[in-house]
Write a structure and sequence with these properties.
3 helices; mainly alpha; flat; 85 residues; single chain
């Protein structure tokens, strides 16, 4: 029996989640935290989607709450680096 490999919306979201999450870590490690924060905020969109889905499908509300708090902290970091300097 052959399996068909279908690229679904969830597969695309998971790929972008990994790309942006690793990307912001690389930018921060290269001493570019202001750009790392922007990439982190982009990754948070995918984290929010995935954690919300995990909350609704598997009742993992802790992951969703953690992601929301992390998004708020990231927004504070962006405001601090880009607008309050």
């Amino acid at each position: 029996m052959k399996r068909k490999f279908l690229i679904t919306k969830n597969t695309i979201i998971q790929i972008w989640l990994v790309f942006f999450s690793v990307g912001w870590l690389l930018l921060i490690s290269m001493k570019l935290p202001e750009y790392g924060l922007i990439m982190n905020l982009i990754s948070q969109m995918f984290w929010l989607h995935s954690s919300y889905k995990a909350w609704k499908e598997a009742n993992q509300i802790g992951l969703f709450i953690n992601t929301v708090l992390f998004t708020i902290i990231t927004i504070y970091g962006i405001v601090n680096y880009w607008f309050l300097n």
